[in-house]
Write a structure and sequence with these properties.
With about 400 residues, the protein is mainly alpha-helical. Helices cover about 60% and strands about 0% of the residues. It contains 15 helices and no strands.
Amino acid sequence: MADRTAVPATSGPPQRPATLPSLTGLRFLAALLVFVYHTSYLVGPLRPDAPITFFADLDVAQPVADFFLPAGRIGVSFFFVLSGFVLAWSATPGDRITAFYRRRVLKIYPNHIVTWALALWLFASTTPVEAWLSNLFLVHTFSNRADIAMSVNFPSWSLCAEVLFYALFPLFIVLVRRIREQALWLWAAGMVAGVAVMAAVTKAFMAGGAPSPFGDLTANQEWFGYAFPPPRLFEFVLGMILARIVAAGRWPRIGLPTSTALFCLGYWAALTVPDPYNFSLTTVVPIGMILCSAASSDLRGGNGPLGSRPMVWLGNVSFAFYLVQGIVVFYGRPEVLGTRTYDTLPAIGMLAVLFLANLLAAWLLYSLVEQPVMRRWSRGRKRPAPDTAPGTAQQTPARSKGPVPSGEVV
């Protein structure tokens, strides 16, 4: 009798996966976009009297903040599309849903609990109980109250969306695998259209509340179009469909330079179009192109810089690098340096120091928490698997050879 808790197989036996190291390297670039956005803040969220930026000259600090304003939003969108791509690419036909959920919980919650506890101890001890409790269980952005949705460790808001993605993934993978290959591009276009529709709905129907401090929208529009998890499902499912397109050999020979150039055009558009159309709409297509180009290059045996050993290492610590920014950047920078700012060249040097401090904190979290937990418990009990190593057998949708990226995406 078939295991009713298993993700249905497509066809053929499981195969030992190859790796797509470039996708691991891309994870860090997405986290870096968020870092440059956070470090460009003129005023920090914890101490209104203390800047985050190191630039003393407002004629420098303001343009830098304006230029990197879309970067954080785009970096998060990159994570969402990448997450869908990797999970669909690496889903094992016949893998138990319980095993999938165990791996996802172990990937997210240990790091989250550590940073959550540190944030409570260092600066969030007065957080209302409904805020810190909902934050602990990663459901806080389902509330449109700012003191709940952006509570405790601020970067954790995006994990609420990831938890929703993971909860629905066993259903989505079945549906995505049933799409005819000839219709994959049409469905991908439909997901992009969904992103556009959500932006239009946000603008037209979600007005109300106080003005948002992050743009031209109200706080309610900012919440619905950016932090509320369900509208972000379109980006996640787009990544899943793109994984099938690459696996089916239907990705055209578009290289990373072209995809990157289009991403830069999308970023420029994000600087010019109004909120919320610059949250992800202007760059979601180039992001998908970059992922598909990088994956296709790896499948052809390309050894680009994204797949180099340093970039893979940075990609592996990228989840921790993202999570510790609330503590290192928003708390640590003003606590250590207060209101101190600098001339342009010393400010750039101090920004490099802050980057290294954030990277060191990320490495500690990764090496002391994330990596030991995943090594110890992510594979569960060993089961007979003559063709693959236990817990690592992964296969792409039908007709693919089943390579997966190194590491896991959050």
